[in-house]
Amino acid sequence: MILVVNGSPQPQGNLHRMLEKIARGTGKPYEMVHLSKLTIGPCMGCVACAPTNVCVQSDDMAPLYDRIVAADALIVGGAIYFGRLNALTHTFLERLYPLRHRLPRTMGKLAAGVCVGAMDAEKGIQEIIEFLEKYFYYRMVGSVYFNSVTPPCFVCGFGDTCQYGAPAMMMSPEEFARFKVTPELFRRFEDFPEVAAACESLSRDLAAAIDALPEH
Known about the structure:
Elements: E1 2-6, H1 14-25, E2 30-34, H2 64-70, E3 73-81, E4 84-85, H3 87-94, E5 110-117, H4 121-135, E6 139-147, H5 166-170, H6 173-178, H7 193-211
Parallel strand pairs: 1-2, 1-3, 3-5, 5-6
Antiparallel strand pairs: 3-4
Helix pairs in contact: 1-7
């Protein structure tokens, strides 16, 4: 089973659809966890998990630990907010901490990363990879990212008039004076063949890596 973690709160957004495409394309059973529907607090830094590899906090992360360890592969999807990996995704990765003590329970397990942002999505991928590979000893199969160039200012209702939003920041005064938010500005990953192909390639690589596991 593949455990897919969706760190975006946007239902059926680019990240959600990319994760679905990748997981479904493997042909393997999968389960998707939507972090926006869970209550997961930050790591408290108490290190009380060290003797048992079990977090002492009683929140929605608690039942995820066994599913994470049991999964054939973990796919972590995150979104970019303010040029950084968003809090939902970062908190999930932070809370993996109990699994790394002494003999990490995720040592050598398969993982993949997916990230979407208006821009800087590659930075989010790098953070996901660093967490999973460096701190939790996952074996990264691959990653995919998509820069939609669609800032929240396009949906807030003030994107073409606000002097402090992303369009005004990125455009010259003359360009911004002519700017209007129009439907074609909302980019979908499906409209970019190279991104769709990268998702399909990751699906194949994940399927092959799972088939090569000793228990398969």
